[in-house]
Write a structure and sequence with these properties.
seven-stranded mixed sheet; 19 strands; GroEL; GROEL, domain 1; alpha+beta; three-stranded antiparallel sheet; 17 helices; GROEL, domain 2
Length: 533
């Protein structure tokens, strides 16, 4: 018998067939199990310490998975689900990852019953398409005028986080900020809402600034501390003597010529300041540097100035004040200036910041998050970001659904009915998909210390016999209640994206039956291979 030739280089490992599928499914399930305990109002937090000793305390799924530095290739595919969910919707990352892990767990049970992965894949595809239709049908409409509903959406996003005890205040701020920056057609660009954080106070001191807060101080002590009824110039060029493109030398033989040269430089800088003064500007924000002489001359003229302002902040200032961004000081005129009721330097904590506030109808605003420590401030900021993402996503889709596991139980019920219309083995895969949807209310009950069997049974009964499509879990007593009426609301895209992403990654992993790993790469989806140790 001929010896089988060696196809792969030394040190290369290979898993095939059921072994490869089991290893991949195990890796994906481990990712889901890692974030599962953070889900819901009773979810717990994770502490992540990086190689430098920096500590992050959070229950935000996307942040946890990003900071964990996961290495296993299959696990990375599941982490991509969280990244996509975060980028597209802004929240629901834990839901998406837990769903992906559960879909693969259910698929593994079917594989153990000798059902071919191709059949499971077909069933999952049918179920995923049906789930999207069901979600669209059960969703409720919403508009920018539904302030109370928008506030409930925001509060749902903050529930279970550090910011929960201040969610009423923060939700008012979030909704008002979104309304301020929305266009006439209702379009919202979250880039126009700046979220700045500062320690040294309580969460209840968080405020909405009708304008922009810059992490900058005035460039010269001689400048005024504030400017009322400010006329603002935004300059995207250095207020300095222009440097030549190539190295150049100037030879001066006569000492008087040196003085002439210095006087000419001084004159050029004075001309820059005169042009700014002539335009009527009382405040200057420069994206580049400001020469020391120019700083002194601006202070002498009573003009407030900040330098090296970030490009993104310059854009936001333009949206907030109505100022045009000027690339050449010669083009500066009264028509290109913006307006703000007050520009002032404020000491926040141990640093100075510049507030540009009282802008008339600003199209860019700032949420200044306050907290007692850096860790809390970071987590409150993440909660605010989630709330902004939730509400803006709901307004884009103009559709919302109830949370508290109501949506998933209704999905499971509809998918089980749908499975009965199928005749092949795909019926088993659709039923498995439906069962996987119930992992969300089951996890909510487990995290609240409730009996998941009792909870799922009661919720199923409420949906099937009581025809209550929004019957969700009350984590306080373990009973079913109308989650929509109680204000536990989520944007439709959170659910549609989570289901679509989770099913897509599950299908992709189920298609793999051969894993070839070059030497030095992780072979096991256990802790050492995932970066979980």
């Amino acid at each position: 018998m001929a010896q089988q030739p060696e196809l792969l280089a030394d040190g290369t490992s290979r898993n095939q067939g059921r072994t490869a599928q089991r290893m991949n499914i195990l890796a994906a399930k481990l990712v889901g199990e890692t974030v599962r305990t953070t889900l819901g109002p009773q979810g717990m937090d994770k502490m992540i310490v990086d190689a430098l000793g920096e500590v992050i305390i959070t229950n935000d799924g996307a942040t946890i998975l990003k900071e964990m530095n996961i290495e296993h290739p299959t696990a990375k595919m599941v982490v991509e689900v969280a990244k996509t969910q975060e980028d597209e919707v802004g929240d629901g990352t834990t839901t998406a990852v837990v769903l992906a892990g559960e879909l693969l767990k259910q698929a593994e049970d079917l594989i153990d019953q000798n059902i071919h992965p191709t059949v499971i894949i077909k069933g999952y595809q049918l179920a995923s398409e049906k789930a999207q239709i069901v979600l669209e049908n059960i969703a409720e409409p919403i508009t920018l005028k539904d302030t109370a509903t928008l506030k409930k959406l925001s509060m749902t996003a903050m529930t279970g986080k550090v910011a929960e005890h201040a969610k009423e205040l923060l939700s008012d701020i979030v909704v008002l900020a979104l309304k301020k920056v929305s266009d006439e057609d209702g379009f919202i660009d979250l880039e126009n809402i700046k979220v700045e954080k500062k320690t040294g106070s309580t969460i209840h001191q968080t405020q909405l600034i009708q304008g922009i807060v810059l992490d900058k101080e005035k460039v010269h002590n001689g400048m005024p501390k504030f400017a009322e009824n400010a006329k603002i110039a935004l300059i995207d060029s250095p207020l300095e003597i222009a440097q030549t493109e190539t190295d150049a030398k100037i030879s001066i033989n006569d000492p008087s010529k040196l003085q002439e040269f210095l006087d000419m430089e001084q004159h050029m800088l004075e001309q820059l300041v005169n042009k700014i003064k002539a335009s009527g500007a009382s405040v200057v924000f420069c994206q580049k540097g400001i020469d020391d002489v120019v700083q002194y001359l601006l202070a002498k003229q009573g003009i407030y100035a900040c330098r090296r302002v970030k490009k993104s902040d310059i854009y936001k200032l333009s949206r907030a004040t109505g100022a045009a961004i000027v690339t050449n000081v010669n083009d500066l005129s009264s028509a290109s200036l913006g307006k703000a009721g007050l520009v002032r330097e404020v000491k926040v904590g141990d640093e100075y910041m510049t507030y540009v506030e009282e802008c008339k109808n600003p199209k860019a605003v700032t949420i200044l998050v306050r907290a007692s420590t850096d860790h809390i401030a970071d987590e409150v900021r993440r909660a605010v970001d989630d709330a902004l993402g939730n509400v803006s996503s709901a307004l884009r889709a103009r559709r919302i659904v109830a949370g508290a596991g109501a949506c998933e139980i209704e999905l499971a019920r509809n998918l089980n009915h749908f499975a009965r219309t199928l005749s092949g083995k795909e019926q088993l895969a659709v039923n498995a998909f439906a069962k996987a949807m119930e992992v969300i209310p089951r996890t909510l009950s487990e995290n609240a210390g409730l009996d998941p069997i009792d909870v799922i049974t009661e919720l199923r009964s409420a949906h099937e016999k009581g025809h209550q499509k929004w019957a969700g879990l009350n984590v306080e007593n373990g009973k079913a209640f109308d989650a929509f009426k109680k204000g536990i609301l989520e944007p439709l895209p959170i659910k549609t994206q989570a289901v679509a992403s989770a099913s897509d990654v599950a299908i992709m992993i189920l298609r793999i039956d051969d894993v070839i790993i070059a030497g030095g790469q992780p072979e096991q989806p256990m802790n050492q291979g995932m970066g979980l140790e």
